[in-house]
Specification:
252 residues; two-stranded antiparallel ribbon; 2 strands; 70% helix
């Protein structure tokens, strides 16, 4: 999972900063989720006169989240701790650019809406909560910009799914695409891509996947590992020292 990488360190510090906010708002304090509900309504909106077509454009997972939040927040409120954890889960989904089945732009919109609801809760809790929110939010904004810069390089290469398919195509052409992407990233970005590809290699197929979407399958990992060409393995792993790829082969 790329221990010690940028995203892991970012999430750890982010958790500490938002932990300061938690000190000022009781976990069971009811807070509004109006911004999040409006965003979900917009993402799942049916276009009059094009009902069938617009339904096809709605992401099924986003639609399920919209329905579930409507049930959980029937009166427009959820406990503060629930709001915090929802936002954290969405942030984790945004980290999984090569894995997620929801477009990154839709996750970002949801994350932004949850952030607005969290800001409103901090404002209502008083000056100390507002100050804690500002520190945590400023740090988060800078980190998200860093993550988005990686996404922009991936998108220029055809998008996360295309890059993963290139990596596991077993061809020199696929390795060339992967190498071009890696050369456009800095060291932190390369480590992020390598770690995410490793996760994706072992991600269980939909029929046996868990609710959180992170179930690991040895069989899937071995199948995908054997699809990596020697060139792709060199591009992904040789930059981490002479023993790294040999150790990965030993694990496989």
């Amino acid at each position: 999972r790329g221990g010690g990488g940028f995203i892991e360190r970012f999430r750890q510090q982010q958790g500490r900063l938002y932990g300061e906010l938690d000190r000022h708002i009781p976990p069971d304090q009811l807070v509004g989720v109006a911004n999040t509900q409006r965003t979900l309504q917009d993402l799942t909106r049916i276009i009059p006169g094009a009902q069938a077509t617009s339904e096809c454009l709605i992401n099924p997972r986003i639609a399920a989240i919209a329905d579930d939040l409507a049930a959980d927040a029937a009166n427009g409120n959820v406990p503060y701790q629930a709001l915090r954890e929802l936002r954290t889960r969405i942030g984790q989904e945004m980290d999984n650019g090569l894995i997620s089945d929801v477009p990154a732009a839709q996750w970002r919109r949801m994350y932004g809406a949850l952030s607005e609801d969290l800001r409103a809760a901090a404002n209502a809790a008083g000056p100390q909560a507002q100050a804690a929110w500002t520190r945590a939010n400023n740090f988060t904004r800078a980190g998200m910009q860093r993550i988005e810069s990686i996404e922009s390089v991936l998108n220029r290469g055809g998008g996360p799914e295309a890059i993963f398919k290139a990596a596991t195509s077993g061809t020199k052409e696929g390795a060339t695409t992967l190498r071009s992407v890696m050369q456009s990233l800095d060291d932190e970005g390369r480590r992020t891509v390598s770690a995410t590809v490793l996760r994706r290699l072992g991600l269980a197929k939909a029929g046996v996947q868990g609710e959180m979407g992170d179930t690991f399958s040895n069989e899937t990992f071995l199948t995908n590992w054997n699809l990596l060409s020697p060139e792709a393995k060199r591009t992904l792993f040789d930059r981490y020292g002479p023993r790294f790829r040999g150790d990965m082969d030993a694990v496989a």
